Please model this.
Amino acid sequence: MMYLNRMVEFEASHYYWDARLSPEENRARFGNETRAHGHNWTAQIGVTGEADTRTGMVVNIKELDDIARRCVVQPLDHKCLNLDVPAFQTALPTPENVAFFIWKRIAPNARGFQLASAEATENKRSKARFNGQYEERTQMPIVTITRAYEFTATHRLHNPNLSDEENVQLYGKCNNLNGHGHDYRLEVSVQAPMDERAGAARGREQIDPIVHKEAVERLDYQHMNDMEEFQDAVPTTENLVRFLYETMQPLFKREGLRLQRARLYETRKSWFDYGEAV
Model:
């Protein structure tokens, strides 16, 4: 099967306010997000199918763009999602719900191709994807949330089992005696069923605390070669992303969340994934 992804953009504001909660409870739960704020959103539409033998295409991009504009951009662009879009007058406009909204709008128009995924990105730190899966017991949508975090750290790539000459040959300038550093960007993708009352993935509120404690607070402004965890392993980004995944995975599982993937950017040109494909 062939897979194709197409992205469209829209600008919209939203806020989080659950009418079933008191003002104090809303502010405690949502913080500043109880106030209207806006984003330059992107919607990514994934489709799959066999390439047509005559045209060589799964779907004509112009046709897919027309569907996306009609079903996604027109109803959402330059709107306050809570007040101007009927679907969000009873459902919180979280990225999870926006992704599900996009799926429901596109799916009936999928002719000659199969809708594979709908993704909503509200900002560089938060996005959600729905790929048509539902929890068997509750029939609630299962969504994948990706959250992003940043930390700065220093490391030296050096294997004590090799000679100095072998280390220089293998790691080059990354073997500098005094180390070097990066502004790392960590993306964590977690899968969970939707919580109908909360309008968000079940257990979503546990993601940030786990990542901050196990990744950001542990690594920010650290020299990784001095850390106990890297006394027997070269602190390459490959080893670091695997360490982060294996550290966080059981903690997410305990909260009923499935850690699908950790992605770690060492630079804008170089990143590493560990876990399942998303």
Observations:
- The chain has a mean pLDDT of 94.
- The CA atoms of residues 11 and 217 lie 33 Å apart.
- The two ends are 17 Å apart (CA to CA).
- The longest strand covers residues 180-195.
